[in-house]
Amino acid sequence: MIRRSRPALLLIVLLTALATVAGCAAIPDETPAQGVAAGDGGGKTAPAPEPPLDLQPADLVRAFLNANADSSSSYAAGRTYLTKAAQPKWQPGSSITIIQDTFNTLPEQTKPDHATVQVSMQIIGRLGADAAFVPQSTPAALTLPVDKQDGQWRISTPPPGVYMTLDRFNELYRQVKVYFLDPQKRVLVPDLRYILAQPSNGLPARVIDLLLAGPSDAMQGALTSALSSDAVLQSGGVEAGDGAVLVNLSRVGDLSAANVKLVIAQVVQSLAVVTNSRIRIEQDGTALSPDRLDWRIGDLPAYDIGTSPSPDLPGLLVQDGLIKQLDGKPLNGPAGNGSYTVLTAAQSIDGSELATVSKDSGSAQLRVGGLTQLAPVVDLTAGTLTRPTWVSADSATDASNEVWTVADGSRVARVVKSAEGTWVPHPVNANDLSAFGPITDLRLSRDGTRAAVIANSQLIVCAVVRTPNSDTVALRSPRVLLPDTLTSVVGVDWLLQDQLVVATSSQESPIIQVAADGDPVFNRYNAANLTAPVTAVTAAPSRPVIVVDAGGMWTSSDSNSVWRVQGINVRHGSTAVPFYPG
Questions:
Q1: What is the pLDDT of residue 550?
Q2: Do 124 and 248 sit in the same domain of this protein?
Q3: Is 310 inside any structural domain?
Q4: What is the pLDDT of residues 178-214, one digit of tens each?
Q5: What is the 3-state secondary structure (H, E, C) of 360-379?
Q6: What gap in Å lies between CA 244 and CA 262, rounded to an integer?
Q7: Could you tell me which of 354, 325, 332 has the C-alpha nearest to residue 566?
Q8: Cα–Cα distance between 395 and 187 in angstroms, integer?
Q9: If I label 110, which of 84, 136, 306, 400 is the partner at 20 to 30 A Cα–Cα?
Q10: 473-519: per-residue pLDDT in tens?
């Protein structure tokens, strides 16, 4: 998948102007130090070239929309398209709006030396001040007056901020994963951001600045950091003389051994995407940890509790009211022998428990209990319940103790195992979702920090915010992903912590992989031998994606692979629902 980066709250951006040119340079492994500061282009910047001579108003505006994306030398390239009077009025740093590559320009000349150009465009997102992508789908019009200056047309009233096409955005920015922690500080969680791709020797410092600034706006309250909010990058962010990338911090905060390990994990994991070099982490010039001077990913303990099912849990299937293994063999116990008719189900991430939804006298029943045991009915009155979804356990040795479902399309409930062993429903504040319509599916990310929601056939991602020392849980910052593309969503599951696999009723794009932030660059799975409509999908790390369509059940190892029959007979029109733990 193509990746990009964004402007940051970066010290680099604050101290100089954003520095950029097109393209993404490869990061050399263990190269000698360059001795260039993070925001330094490495030499004196040449003056921006003047626009080509004799551009007509519409061509001038088109050329400006290409040039204004270049942030080097305080957006000098774009300023040359403005009149001298307009140049100081333009504030490109105020906002960055991303538009579709195709747009229209309609010029109207009212005087020999004055004209206006109407730009009709489709906005697909913007770059927040936190360097996070914010998806959007809005048709827009921009009116740009142009005047003649010294015989050449120039824009006399600049636009608010920067407008750039998606292709230009992909050219100048790259996506990075900045790692924070879940509220219990058990799991490293990627927070997708976008930074300028050039100069490449400044990439590590840009990433560290984002890490120090904290989680993105959309993930506030869902993620935390082992670093103090006062921490700063004192020096470094570039390679030292021996090839290691130096990260010299000040005011790190808690220096207990346990917290220092978390700080190191956040730094090293965040930098892994922009450098292959060793990471040297210091506080005020002294090694942060007495255990090691330099670090690589392989030196870190695993911070991935519950983010991936065990390889010995192959997944299960609801078929004909029974829970079955993926080879078609019924599960031992009441859920597999027909003691009650199962409509949908979910297995806990550790594999030990099962949550099922069944019908009794017109009411939906949620049962939660041991995998092969007769599970009691939870006291949750509803006409319908969505497929359950589990929260991971607190540690690798604990069983999961929380499962979520949506009652009657609107009431989000978390069912928690009490000290006495009973499962008790608790409400989730989902008021932020009320405007989107009835909810037909909700899947928690396996790290528990995000929720993917299907409402009115749209895909929405929210942050799961837990109030410290309280039972209050809320779904916040809902964002509709790919609103122009995902208009007929029927199923969703988490492939990775920040990647979703989406099933739609579309014949052209039945299965799509999309980033959790709604990145407009996405993967379409090969649809060659699928038969619309697709009715169910499940995914998990290091597992093939499984789908059910009008012709049966199929698996695929990646988006370019041909779908293969799962291996058991799922008849035409089946309501089979495969599911991996989680």
A1: 85
A2: no
A3: no
A4: 999 999 999 999 999 999 999 999 999 999 999 999 9
A5: ECCEEEEEEEECCCCCCECC
A6: 20
A7: 325
A8: 10
A9: 84
A10: 999 999 999 999 999 999 999 999 999 999 999 988 999 999 999 99
- Are residues 119 and 217 both part of a single domain? no
Residues 549 and 533 sit within 8 Å (Cβ to Cβ): yes
* DSSP per-residue codes, 417-482: E-TTS-EEEEE-B-GGGGGG--EEEEEE-TTSSEEEEEETTEEEEEEEEE-TTSS-EEEEEEEESS
Return the percent helix, strand and coil in the chain, to nearest 5.
15, 40, 50
| Token representation of residue 119 | 């730009």
CA distances to 37, 433, 450, 490 from 454, in Å: 46, 10, 13, 8
**10 Å Cβ neighbour count for 137?**
14
Domain that holds residue 548: 316-579
Structural domains of the chain, count: 3
Phi, psi values for residue 200, rounded to 5°: -65, -25
CA separation for the pair 140, 151 (Å, rounded) = 31
Radius of gyration of the chain from Cα atoms? 26
Same domain, yes or no: 229 and 321? no
Q: Which two tokens stand for residue 460?
A: 């929405």
Whether the Cβ atoms of residue 208 and residue 38 lie closer than 8 Å to each other: no
Shared domain for 286 and 350, answered yes or no, is no
SS3 551: coil
